[in-house]
Each structure stands twice: as C-alpha cells, then as structure tokens.
Design brief:
single chain, about 240 residues, two-stranded antiparallel ribbon, 8 helices, about 50% helix
C-alpha cells in the first residue's frame, strides 16, 4: 500500500518531502550542532483550503516547495533525515538511547551541515533558472525544462496494491527529478552527501573504539548501520 501521509492531532497534514523551503530554512537556523535531537522540518498544511502552510500563512511569507527540477533531491534529503533520526531511538529495555551522546552530537553536527548544503543547492538551482523573480515569462521557460527532464526519467512500474512501503517509496522516488552532472549545484550536493556519510561513519568508528571493539568488529558495526543509508553517493 502507498505510504501514509501523517495527519496531526488538529487535522492538519505534515508532508514527508513537500514541505516548503521557508520552513526548512527557519528550522535549520534554529537547529544547532549541540542539539541532542533529530532535525525535523516543522511544516504542516491545514485542511481549510489554503495553499500556504500554517507558518507561512501566519508570517505572510512565500510558501514554496523545493523547485520541481530538484524534488527528487528533496525526497532523498527527507529520507536521510528520517534515517538519521534512528540515532535517537531508545532501547526498549531501559528506555536509554541506543547510541551514546558523543555519536548523537556528531550526527547533529553533520545534519547541521547537510541542512545548509541543501538550502544553498536549492538557491543555486533557482538562480540558475532565474526562479528568484516572480516574472511569469521566466517561469514559462522553466516549465519546458522540467517537462524535458521528465521525459528522460525511467519510471518504475506502479506497485501491486499489496506491495510494502519500500516498494511504493521506490516508485514515488523514480517519478521525481534530480540534479544531473553538469547542473549548477550538482557537485555541491554530491559533496555534501559524501561529507555527511563520512561524518556518520567516523562517529560510529570512534564509538566502536571506545566500546573496545576490535578492527573487524568495528568495520562490521559501521557496515551494519551504513548498509541502510537511503541515498546513493554518485561519483563526481
């Protein structure tokens, strides 16, 4: 079955990846590398028919999702945020965090850098396509670019209705556009992904040493965690 949209207690909906960039940047500014908590984009839409999210409606801010040509990168970023939140999972037996504070703070620091890199990459993409203005003629030139890119996509077949959430995730991801080699911002984002992954691997390796694990056991610990990393780090 398709992944469920998360309704909140007040009936509003918190999107998984179609949050607005205003909320992403607002939450990223408040998130510090010393924050012992996962990073979360606090963006939700009410059911009253407004095209603005709750925060932008109150602030009178421009409520814009990630640019269409980068929605796939926004999806990947959201998958990473969800994956990274598991470092704050609690042990079922004693309700203590499964990972020590030093690891969690290292993850928070890496998230801080990743948040900034995504925001900058999205700005670079918008500037490259002159999307920073409200000129409708400029937007009219962007739509053909998006349509041309969509024709290059290799979409997966629609999953069977009994397919699990992973299958629907893969299908949904295959329908979204991503930056390609040569695009402004592509190298920036690929480097950010590699830096994030490397920081997490280093944090786990250091934790293994502090736990007294030998080199083989340490590599197995790193491999066991990173095998679930949801995004491929492409060559540059």
């Amino acid at each position: 079955m398709p992944p469920r949209i998360r309704p909140l207690v007040d009936g509003s909906v918190k999107p998984f990846f179609l949050w607005c960039m205003h909320c992403q940047r607002r939450c990223a500014r408040k998130y510090t590398r010393y924050a012992d908590r996962p990073f979360e984009i606090d963006c939700h839409f009410s059911g009253n028919g407004s095209i603005l999210c709750h925060k932008c409606s109150g602030d009178g801010a421009a409520c814009k999702s990630v640019a269409a040509g980068m929605l796939g990168n926004g999806w990947d970023y959201s998958q990473i945020l969800r994956w990274a939140s598991t470092f704050w999972d609690e042990d079922e037996d004693d309700e203590e965090y499964k990972w020590p504070e030093k690891v969690r703070l290292s993850v928070a620091s890496a998230l801080k850098h990743l948040n900034s890199a995504f925001s900058i990459t999205e700005k670079v993409h918008r500037r490259a396509h002159a999307l920073t203005s409200e000129d409708h003629e400029v937007m009219a030139t962007y739509y053909p670019f998006v349509e041309q890119r969509r024709r290059l996509l290799v979409q997966l077949p629609v999953p069977d209705k009994h397919e699990g959430e992973d299958g629907w995730d893969s299908y949904g991801s295959s329908r979204l556009l991503r930056l390609l080699p040569g695009d402004p911002g592509y190298v920036l984002w690929m480097v950010a992904l590699r830096a994030f992954r490397g920081a997490i691997e280093d944090a786990i390796s250091n934790s293994a040493v502090l736990r007294g694990l030998n080199e083989v056991a340490g590599r197995e610990l790193v491999g066991g965690v990173m095998c679930c990393f949801p995004v491929a780090c492409e060559d540059i």
